[in-house]
Amino acid sequence: MMENISWLLDIVVFFAVYLIVTLALNLQYGYTGIPNFGLALSVATGAYTTGALAGRIGMWICGIRSDLDYIMYNPMITSMINSAIRYDPLKGLTIFFSTIIIVVIVSAIIGFIASYPAIRLRADYLMMVLIAMAEAARIIGLNYTPLVGGTTWVSVPNVFIWMGDMASQFLIITILAISILIFLFMQYLVSSPYGRLIKAVRENELTAECVGKDVVKVKIQIMMLGSAIAGIAGSLWSFYCGTVLAAAYTRTDWTFWPWLMAMIGGMGNNIGALVGVATVIICRRLIIYYKYSLEAYIPFSVVWLEQILLALALILVMMFRPQGIIPEKPAKPKIKKTSQQ
Amino acid sequence: MIPLALIEDALVYANLLLMLTVGFTLTYLIAKIPNFAHGEFAGIGVYITFTVAQVWKSNPYLAVPLAFIISAFSGALIYNGVLRTLKRFGGTMISLTISTLAMQIMISALLNIYADYLYPIAGAYSRLFLFRHLDFEFIGLPGVLIVSTIFLLTLITFLHLMLTRTRFGISLRAVVEDSSLASILGVNVELACTISWMLTAGIAGVAGSLLPLWFQGHPYTGSMLLTSVFAASILGGLSSIYGAMIGAYIIGLTEIFGTYLLAQTFGAQLTAYRSLIPLTILCIVLLIFPRGITGLIEDLQARRASKAMVKIRGEGS
C-alpha cells in the first residue's frame, strides 16, 4: 500500500515538473513558432540557481556563520539550515519563495540572452545555437565549482521540514499546485489578445508586422517568459530531489523528453501538452517500475531501452500523427460586448 | 615555445574535425537540414576501431575501411528509412531536424549497449579507451597524423574532382541549387541524396575510426564533437564545402591552442572549458558576419567586380 502511494507521488512530481517544462516549450514553439532546442538551458539555469542560492539564502536567513565555504561544507550547512527551520515555517517558506523569485529573474535574463539569436536567425541556425548554448550551460555547471560543486553535488535545504513526516508530501502538493497555476495562467494567456498576437507571429511574421505588431518585442517577451517558466521547473525539481547534480541536466532529459511530450499531445494546445505529459510519464514510470521483469527479456540496461523508445516514438508520431493526440483547434474568441464598438 | 605534442594534437584534431565538417556541410546543402546525427557516425567508427583493436587484436588501421562501409550503410539507412519516409508523410523542416535528433539519441543508445556488451568480451574498459600505443611512428611523427593528412588530401581532391568534373557531381550540385528543377531535368534526386549521405556518413566514420588512435574514445564522442562541427560549419558559411574546410581548420587549431594559451595564462583549471571556445566563435561569427567565411569572400569578390566595372566604364567614356 505504502509503496503504491509513493509510486503515485513519484508520478505526480514527474508529471508536474515536466508539465511546466512542456508548457514553456508549447508557448515558445507551439504558439509562437520559436523552435527552442535549448530548453535544457533554462531548466539547468533554474536548477543551478537553486543549488547555488537556496543554501546561501538559508545561511543568511538563519544567521549561520558565513565564513564557511559553501560547497565544501555543504552537507553540514544544509543540515544546520534544516535544523534551524525545523520549528520555523516562516524561514522555510521565505527560503523557498525567495529562491523561486530569484530563479524566475535569472532564467528570464537567460531567456533574454537566448532571444538574441532567436529573433535574428533562421530556424536551422537557431536550433544549432540553442543546443550549443544548453551544452555550454552544462559545461559551466560541471566545471565551475562555486556554482553547484562541479562533478559533485550540492544539497538543497528541505524547506518544508517543519511539516515533520508530511514534508515531502507537502512539497509534492506545492509543486503540483504551482504547475496547475502555471497551466491556468497559460490557458488565460493564450486565450487573451496576446495569445492571438503570438499565433499571428507564428503564422506569418510579415503580416503581423504589416498590421503594426512588434514581432521582435513579442519574440523577446516569449523567450523570457518561457525561460522563466522552465526555470521554475528546474528549481522545483531540485527542491524535490534535495540535491543539484550538474551532470543531470542533459539535453535528452530536459530538451527531448519535453519535445516528445509536446509532440505526442499536440503542439499549440495546452490540453494537448497535459495529455502528452501524462502519457509519456506514465509509460516511462511503467518501464522503470517493471525494470527488473523487463531486464529478464532484454539483454541490456533499461536506460538505453528508454532512449531508443523515445527516439522511435518521436519519429513515429511525426510520421503518423504530426498534429498530436489533440490537434490545435482554432481559437474561439470570447464574445463580449465591448464598449469600443 | 609551443611543445611539439601540442602541435600534433592540434593537427590531428583539425584533420578529424575537417572530415566531419565537410560531411555535415554537404548534408546540410543537399537535405537543407542540419544533421544532428552526424557526430554519431564518428561514434560508430570509434567502436569499430575498438572492436578491431581490442576484440580481434589486429591492426587498428584495418578498422578504417570497415568503418567507412558500416557508417555509409547506416547513413543510407537513416536517409531512406527515416528522412525520406518522413518527407513522404509531409514532414516539415523542423520535423526532419527533430528526426535527426531522435536518430542521434538512438544511435548513441545503441553504442552504449554495444559498449556494455563488449565489456566482458574485450576484457578491457569499453568506455574510455585510447590506442595511442598501437599506432606506428614514421620519422618521429605519429601514424594517425600522417594517415589522416593523406586521407584528407585525397578526400579534398576527390570531392573537388567529383563536384566539378563528373556527371554525378554536377547533378549533385543541381540538387543543391534546386532539387525540384533538377528532378525535372532527369536527375535522380533520391539516388543523389542517398549516395551523398553514404559518402558523408562514411567520411565521418573514418574520422571516428582514427580518433581513438590519438584521443580518448567513448560512446559520447560524436555528440561532444557536434558543437565544434556546428561552429566550424557556420564559420565556413554553411554554403560551401571549401568554406567548411577553412572553418574546420580554424576551429580545430583555435580550440587546442586557445585552451593551451588560456591554461598557460590563467591556470590549468581552464582546460575543462575547452568546448566553450567553439561556442564563443560560433556566437561571434553569427553576430558579426553571419554568412561566414564564404560570405566574406563573396562580398570581397563582388566589391572587386564592381570596382573593375567602374574602371571599365571610366575608360569607356
Annotate the secondary structure layout.
The complex is a heterodimer of chains A (341) and B (317).
Chain A: H1 2-31, H2 39-62, H3 74-84, H4 89-118, H5 123-143, H6 145-148, E1 154-155, H7 167-191, H8 193-203, H9 205-210, H10 215-241, E2 243-244, H11 251-265, H12 270-289, H13 291-297, H14 302-320
Antiparallel strand pairs in A: 1-2
Helix pairs in contact in A: 1-7, 1-10, 1-11, 1-12, 2-3, 2-4, 2-5, 2-10, 2-11, 4-10, 7-10, 11-12, 11-14
Chain B: H1 4-31, H2 38-55, H3 63-88, H4 93-122, E1 137-138, E2 141-142, H5 143-165, H6 167-177, H7 179-184, H8 189-210, H9 221-236, H10 241-266, H11 276-288, H12 292-316
Antiparallel strand pairs in B: 1-2
What does this 3D model show about the protein?
- The complex is a heterodimer of chains A (341) and B (317).
- Chain A is an all-alpha fold and 341 residues long.
- Chain A has one domain (2-248).
- Helices cover 73% and strands 1% of the residues of chain A.
- Chain A has helices at 2-31, 39-62, 74-84, 89-118, 123-143, 145-148, 167-191, 193-203, 205-210, 215-241, 251-265, 270-289, 291-297, 302-320; strands at 154-155, 243-244.
- In chain A, strands 1-2 form a two-stranded antiparallel sheet.
- Chain A starts with a helix and ends in a 21-residue tail after the last helix.
- The model of chain A has no long low-confidence stretch (mean pLDDT 87).
- Chain B has 317 residues and is an all-alpha fold.
- Chain B has one domain (4-292): ABC transporter involved in vitamin B12 uptake, BtuC, CATH 1.10.3470.
- Chain B has a two-stranded antiparallel ribbon.
- In chain B, strand 1 (137-138) and strand 2 (141-142) form a beta hairpin.
- The longest helix of chain B has 30 residues, at 93-122.
- The N and C termini of chain B lie far apart (58 Å).
- The mean pLDDT of chain B is 87.
- At the A-B interface, helix 5, helix 11 and helix 14 of A face helix 3, helix 4, helix 9 and helix 11 of B.
